[in-house]
């Protein structure tokens, strides 16, 4: 077959025409369900605790090979590749250069940085046939510093930003939540090198800007919060955290709640002074993340003869308007903080400011809350009971999922590896280093946590596995349906629109269910009834709205929809 195509190509007078014809004749068939691995599941998988894990399995994005190890199927790979393309574009806009560092590291460089001891049991180590010890890289600061030492000879080469998208390895003691916590995962990690701290700070802000663009393009809601640098090192770091909804399964052991023992939530409450009804008194009420409050019980507990209400976001912002930021120390100094007696004192803990959707991490109890006003005896409503009484909705609580972490490391690794260059004054200077990571695979989980309904995933257009799907009714029985389906399919391909054609002989209900589950943004429905009227139907996945158009308007309409999202 290869030699036939080879001879036809070189004997063709118009080679470009031949390539186009060959593409539309053969390669486009890969976007038909009859020749595509569409692996959907009807029922909820067992042991899938959070919605992203459930839907990624059901929609055929992933399959579990072992605990914490997943196979990515074609639909999942398409989503991954689209996200990687967005990351590549934004990193290259700020001057990032792509590199490829090895996964296997000599243990010597981890001994040099002393991280072999403080990284912990999550470090994967392997021994080769010659009894040499190696590390499976969970991160690449040591390797990047070695590369910089080899290649950077002058301050004139700086600043420099190098990045890669690489599989990382971590010996998780308890992999869970699907691709959120696994033994291997895809990460974008970047490393920058600078002569001065000022230059490092500028690049740090540039990376923040790039990350904002990346997450905004995929319509992800996120917060940027100051963070602890941990085993990576440095004095300044920030986390990008996406909000997620974790749903509780009655049959599960609520592992997701157990992992949040050091995450609390603060509600800002208010009441009117008994002596002066125009005066509003505010206080903060701190509880576990998986609990909700009963205002009447709080009122009874602290013996106030006036109604307690939740303060609005606007009221809180007005109250703290003179403060540059809101943190736990500022809250404690300005209003009383009441802490529930069931809270176990934690050395380090995180707090969600409920009405403000802000998360404060790395709080130290005796530094920020040395003398809470009192411990409340209020009996809290369990979250399951709370939602049984409220519209019978599914049970959930909100927390945040870390999707990226950036660091101003400084000279930590430069000192270990003696990475110096002469500055513009001829003085030997340790290079300042920045490190910037994005959890690529877990970002996909975060997107799903924010974009789904009872039917399945609702993908943002930029990373949807397909932009459009064509659903013909009675394709193999109705000549008109077949004709116009093929016409639409060919035109969409010519316009570089990522389309999936459902050409299998299946029940229409099954096809609709699968397409909703996978979450393709636009569905073009070609039915005998509409075709006779020269019409087709288009369905929006994000709100399930349907519109009827003339066939001649279809391609123009889809192109306009694509252009809105450029």
UniProtKB/TrEMBL annotation:
Q: Name one GO molecular function term.
A: proline-tRNA ligase activity
Q: Where in the cell is it found?
A: Cytoplasm
Known EC number: 6.1.1.15
List the Pfam families.
HGTP_anticodon, tRNA-synt_2b
| Keyword match Metal-binding | no
GO biological process annotation, one example: prolyl-tRNA aminoacylation
- Self-association or partners: how does it assemble? Homodimer.
Q: What is this protein called?
A: Proline--tRNA ligase
Gene encoding the protein: proS
């Amino acid at each position: 077959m290869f030699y036939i195509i080879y001879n036809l190509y070189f004997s063709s007078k118009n080679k470009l025409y031949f390539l186009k014809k060959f593409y539309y004749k053969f390669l486009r068939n890969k976007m038909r369900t009859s020749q595509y691995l569409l692996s959907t599941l009807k029922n909820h998988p067992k042991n899938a605790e959070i919605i992203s894990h459930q839907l990624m399995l059901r929609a055929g994005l992933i399959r579990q090979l072992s605990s914490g190890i997943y196979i990515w199927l074609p639909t999942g790979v398409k989503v991954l590749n689209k996200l990687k393309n967005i990351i590549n574009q934004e990193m290259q806009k700020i001057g990032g250069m792509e590199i490829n560092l090895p996964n296997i590291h000599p243990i010597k460089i981890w001994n040099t940085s002393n991280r072999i001891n403080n990284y912990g049991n999550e470090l994967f180590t392997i021994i080769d046939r010659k009894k040499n010890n190696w590390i499976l890289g969970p991160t690449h600061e040591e390797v990047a510093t070695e590369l910089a030492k080899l290649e950077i000879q002058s301050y004139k080469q700086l600043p420099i930003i190098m990045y890669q998208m690489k599989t990382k390895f971590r010996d998780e003691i308890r992999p869970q939540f699907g691709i959120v916590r696994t033994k291997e995962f895809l990460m974008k990690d970047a490393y920058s090198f600078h002569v001065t701290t000022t230059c490092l700070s500028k690049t740090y802000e540039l990376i923040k800007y790039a990350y904002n663009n990346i997450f905004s393009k995929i319509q992800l809601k996120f917060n940027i919060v100051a963070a602890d640098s941990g085993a990576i090192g440095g004095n300044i770091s920030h986390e990008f955290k996406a909000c997620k909804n974790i749903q509780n399964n009655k049959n599960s052991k609520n592992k997701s709640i157990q992992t949040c023992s050091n995450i609390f939530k603060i509600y800002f409450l208010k009441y009117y002074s008994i002596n002066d009804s125009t005066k509003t008194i505010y206080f903060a009420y701190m509880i576990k993340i998986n609990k909700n409050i009963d205002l009447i019980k709080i009122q009874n507990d602290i013996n106030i003869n006036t109604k307690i209400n939740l303060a609005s976001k606007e009221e809180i912002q007005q109250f703290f308007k003179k403060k540059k930021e809101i943190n736990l120390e500022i809250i404690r100094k300005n209003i009383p903080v009441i802490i529930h007696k069931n809270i176990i004192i934690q050395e380090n803990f995180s707090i969600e400011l409920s009405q403000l959707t802000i998360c404060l991490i790395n709080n130290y109890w005796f530094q920020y809350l040395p003398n809470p006003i009192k411990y409340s005896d209020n009996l809290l409503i369990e979250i399951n009971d709370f939602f049984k009484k409220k519209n019978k909705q599914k049970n959930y609580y909100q927390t945040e999922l870390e999707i990226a972490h950036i660091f101003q490391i400084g000279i930590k690794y430069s000192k270990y590896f003696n990475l110096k260059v002469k500055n513009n004054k001829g003085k030997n200077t340790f290079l300042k280093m920045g490190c910037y990571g994005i959890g690529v695979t877990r970002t996909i989980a975060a997107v799903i946590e924010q974009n789904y309904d009872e039917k399945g995933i609702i993908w943002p257009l930029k990373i949807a596995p397909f932009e459009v799907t064509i659903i013909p009714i009675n394709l193999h029985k109705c000549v008109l349906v077949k004709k116009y389906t093929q016409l639409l399919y060919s035109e969409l391909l010519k316009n570089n629109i990522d389309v999936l054609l459902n050409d299998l002989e299946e029940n229409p209900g099954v096809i609709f269910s699968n397409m909703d589950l996978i979450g393709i943004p636009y569905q073009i429905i070609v039915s005998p009834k509409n075709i006779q009227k020269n019409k087709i139907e288009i369905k929006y996945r994000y709100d399930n709205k349907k519109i009827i158009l003339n066939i001649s308007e279809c391609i123009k309409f889809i192109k306009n929809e694509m252009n809105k999202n450029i």
